[in-house]
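Below is a filled-in request sheet from our internal design queue. Each sheet records the structural input a requester submitted and the sequence that came back. We keep these sheets so that new team members can see what a complete request looks like end to end.

REQUESTER: design group, bay 2
PRIORITY: normal
MODE: inverse folding
CHAIN LENGTH: 415
BACKBONE (tokenized):
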């Protein structure tokens, strides 16, 4: 039977429902929500600091400047595994900041997850008509080179187009500057597509690994044409897009997330430092550890060593950046066994805090500590695997993290 019109799939309905819940929940107090769940320890929902908190004092001064029109952008980088690739947690956090500051500019770093045939973040998507291969810093898909997202896509098609778009439900809805992070393969001709119907000034920055295009007017999506000129060097590689709105002030979000990533995964990315440098991060949030603790070979000292390197790279890329370490979320192994290694991972974050003068958001204790993920599951906040969260759970995490930072910012004092 011939269909009379388009149908709404279950996936579409779930997406619409998710975004409705996101939009409404942003305006609710996370502390009021915590009151519904007695297993959540609300009185630990704040940032912990070492003796030297100068990086955060500088961050709060920058936030003051944004609020009073003396600065146009605050750049936030959130690095992690599947918690960050899913994007809800990061998106709620940044959307709360935008709403609180009454801003809508900034923009997003967008990895082409859809082209890579994996789950995307809610604020941006990607598209192509070509054949691309996915590489990750984990598992059987491991290959080099990799960018700051611990993932890449590559193609050897003779000709195709590709692009990125901002979601209509995002707080920042358009951009006037786009950066394409790629490998500068001279065997390919990479151009701004005439189908965009506007002009763009192009600048190639091979040192930092991207080509930027300044647009004559703002867009919510952009397309590029790719043509293989010869076969001397195989594969054109894309590491992601930066979609930037410089016409309005706001918070820029780079959600660097790769499913399965551990604390060592990002250390395999040769272009990590120059690409991070290009983001000019004011605040960096590191949320790695779930996949580390899932392994029988987990060792606290090695975990700390990996974080030592990540922190060193972050500071080298962006001197003065304020860094928040989130303690590992409680989780189960194969759905049945409570993971005792999460306690060691939590303690490691506080050791790193003292060693590097950072902040810690103790999500592990906030959740309720050891075995608390089962309570989150019973309340509909965590998934059956007792590792990941539901959309409702990730929304709550985003609200809670926002309140922890916002309370510290408004008090301008260290606990």
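RETURNED SEQUENCE:
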């Amino acid at each position: 039977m011939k269909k009379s019109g388009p149908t709404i799939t279950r996936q579409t309905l779930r997406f619409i429902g998710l975004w409705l819940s996101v939009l409404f929940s942003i305006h609710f107090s996370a502390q009021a929500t915590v009151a519904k769940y007695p297993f959540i320890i609300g009185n630990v929902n704040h940032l912990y600091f070492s003796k030297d908190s100068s990086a955060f004092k500088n961050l709060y001064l920058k936030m003051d400047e944004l609020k009073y029109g003396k600065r146009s952008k605050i750049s936030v980088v959130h690095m992690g595994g599947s918690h960050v690739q899913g994007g809800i947690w990061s998106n709620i956090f940044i959307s709360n900041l935008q709403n609180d500051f009454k801003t809508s500019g900034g923009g997003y770093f967008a990895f082409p997850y859809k082209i890579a045939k994996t789950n995307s973040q809610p604020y941006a998507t990607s598209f192509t008509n070509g054949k691309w291969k996915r590489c990750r810093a984990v598992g059987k898909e491991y290959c080099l080179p990799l960018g700051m997202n611990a993932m890449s896509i590559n193609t050897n098609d003779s000709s195709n187009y590709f692009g990125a778009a901002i979601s209509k439900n995002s707080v920042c809805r358009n951009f006037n500057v786009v950066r394409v992070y790629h490998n500068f393969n001279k065997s390919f001709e990479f151009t701004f597509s005439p189908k965009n119907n506007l002009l763009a000034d192009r600048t190639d920055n091979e040192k930092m690994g991207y080509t930027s295009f300044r647009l004559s007017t703002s867009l919510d999506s952009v397309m590029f044409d790719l043509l293989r000129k010869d076969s001397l060097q195989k594969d054109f590689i894309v590491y992601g897009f930066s979609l930037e709105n410089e016409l309005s002030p706001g918070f820029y979000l780079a959600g660097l997330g790769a499913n399965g990533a551990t604390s060592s995964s990002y250390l395999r990315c040769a272009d990590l430092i120059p690409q991070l440098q290009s983001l000019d991060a004011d605040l960096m949030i590191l949320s790695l550890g779930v996949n580390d603790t899932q392994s029988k070979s987990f060792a606290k000292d090695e975990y700390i060593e990996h974080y030592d390197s990540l922190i060193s790279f972050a500071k080298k890329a962006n001197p003065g950046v304020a860094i928040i370490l989130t303690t590992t979320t409680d989780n189960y192994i194969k759905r049945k066994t409570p993971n005792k290694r999460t306690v060691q991972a939590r303690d490691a974050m506080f050791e790193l805090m003292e060693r590097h003068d950072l902040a810690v958001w103790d999500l592990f204790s906030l959740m309720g500590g050891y075995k608390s993920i089962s309570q989150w599951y019973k309340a509909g906040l965590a998934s059956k695997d007792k590792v990941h969260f539901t959309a409702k759970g990730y929304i709550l995490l985003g609200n809670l993290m926002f309140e922890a930072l916002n309370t510290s910012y408004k008090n301008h004092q260290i606990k």
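SHEET NOTES:
- Residues 86 and 121 are 5 Å apart (CA to CA).
- The chain is about 30% helix and 25% strand.
FILED BY: M.R.
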